[in-house]
């Protein structure tokens, strides 16, 4: 698909009547929206990270700006923007200035190919996952560029560690995703999501809407589960998150490859890191957790959502006795439950989406975005949780884990999934052997 | 020349100039690390050129292999030389007359290859249409003598030949309608600009030529038409409910996707399997060599 065709061809938006101008307007609009969304999302997830960290360590975290510190991220963003941009004398000025943008572009380019809702992504490639893996490699180059051009040994060590780590962990990640691609038979992120709507584990009842049992995670029992774990561990390493944060190890290298950066340039690395966390979580969601599909399809969804919403509200209300204000939680929780049960109506056997969310409607889009981003944020939460739970790996342990444990495991997994995928052919072969006829 | 062609040409020239400028920077930069980073511009521009030529799979593979693999390796190798923190690593070799002659020879042979051996006619693209239980191959041919781009994207030619092949024959089919519409991909019914051709059903490949395509954003689909319903008194003859390709709301949920992935896969894992495997042996040899060079020296 040509870049121009992406926008107008995919959406059929007519503004000026000229396909080319429409395409440019659409591309600009989507990029504008996405960049702003990334900025806000990164801000909110830093707040999330600080709050979660604080509560795990029995602190309260940021508390002064806004209610419960909820606007701290905006204050941080403002601070970063008006800070002085310091460039040391020993740096290679051109590359030093360029590298934050290379890193950020590598992360940002991934966002356009993610399947946010049924049937629509900003750029619907038929080579989706391959594109994602390809453009994210610009991040490595940007990191090396930053480390080298800083003219500081801490930055250089951080960059070398980071690049070595990312390049190494791309191997098990690639092999696990290859195994999942054997199942789906397509590289298109939308089709991969849609393929997880029907079927139960091990190819049983291929026309049954199994909800979370149809997801890639459960497709071949333990093997796809192991694939998910390998992918998630690799994703942690690719995003330089704890326990694999040796490129930024504060106690060894001052701050890794962005030691010499300050102000806005530093915040670009920061944005890219959080944008990358979302991208790897989104790939995990699409491949293993059903993308934008709800975990409970059809009529069950209504009951589950209602019970879940009321239970969540009840829990929040119960928490009031421990000092939290639970009334709002109760109202929001049960309100969400009622709303969701209205969205997934009694048409479950025909379509997973209900009367408020018939195919192609705004309701379906909202539902898709809700489930997709909900799953992504759940995975990001686990990343943050791990950061405040696990100690850091050593460099040699990191490489040992990657090359001697994860990579062989990923290969075994690939073969196992391949064997299951071709089971009908194997059965025919075996049957032919026993019946004495030609297979 | 239409707007879209003009824009595509402009994009091509911008990318070509970027690629050449990057290549010049690689060759002339006095700083070897900067040369390595300038290679990034060359490789990305080349990938973007592939994308403009609608070879999206090749573009992604180019970035994945050359930027993600080889360029990182080159930068690593450059940085791991012993003067690692010295910013002023220099590339002393200036292009001498010998190098100039060698480049001329290479350029000459390249031009010869391009002029005399390259196949300029494009192979038909595959469009796979998935219906319920059926996979329909919809192949699209360029109209004669045209070099424009006509595809799901922007059409700059006036006619296109579509070919469909049903993998598993469907019972009770009489006609197959090939049609193209402009506008929303998912709403063929609402399109104002439509054109269609009906051909009798045939288990083999079926072909139709759609003409008078204006410049714009075309989508292609096929419709399977069964036998007409039996007449009931004065009731007019009813056509069975058509299923449109690319309408996600449909129960049959057709979807059109056209890919270069499948032909590339067939070429790599079929026609050129031996060459592919031979190259992988070469890479393995390089890996063994690297491991040999990098191993710790054991002194007795």
Provide structural commentary:
The complex is a heterodimer of chains A (439) and B (300). Chain A has 439 residues and is mainly alpha-helical. Chain A folds into three domains: 1-82, no CATH class; 87-295 and 359-439, no CATH class; 298-343. Helix content of chain A is 64%, strand content 2%. Chain A has a two-stranded antiparallel ribbon with strand order 1-2. In chain A, helix 3 packs across helix 10, helix 6 packs antiparallel against helix 7 (153-184) and helix 9 runs antiparallel to helix 14. The two termini of chain A are 42 Å apart. Mean pLDDT of chain A is 80; it is low at 1-10 and 345-355. Chain B has 300 residues and is an alpha+beta fold. Chain B folds into three domains: 3-118, NADH-ubiquinone/plastoquinone oxidoreductase chain 6, subunit NuoJ (Four Helix Bundle (Hemerythrin (Met), subunit A)); 125-230 and 237-259, Immunoglobulin-like, CATH 2.60.40; 271-300. Chain B is built from six helices and nine strands. Chain B has helices at 3-28, 32-52, 56-79, 97-116, 261-271, 273-294, and strands at 125-131, 134-142, 154-155, 160-166, 175-182, 194-200, 206-210, 216-225, 255-258. Chain B has a five-stranded antiparallel sheet with strand order 7-4-2-1-9, with no helix packed on it. Chain B has a four-stranded antiparallel sheet with strand order 3-8-5-6, with no helix packed on it. In chain B, a hairpin with a 2-residue loop joins strand 1 (125-131) and strand 2. The longest helix of chain B is centred in the N-terminal third of the chain and has 26 residues, at 3-28. Residues 121-126, 142-157 and 229-258 of chain B have low confidence and may be disordered. Chains A and B meet through helix 1, helix 2, helix 5, helix 6 and helix 7 of A and helix 1, helix 2, helix 3, strand 8 and strand 9 of B.
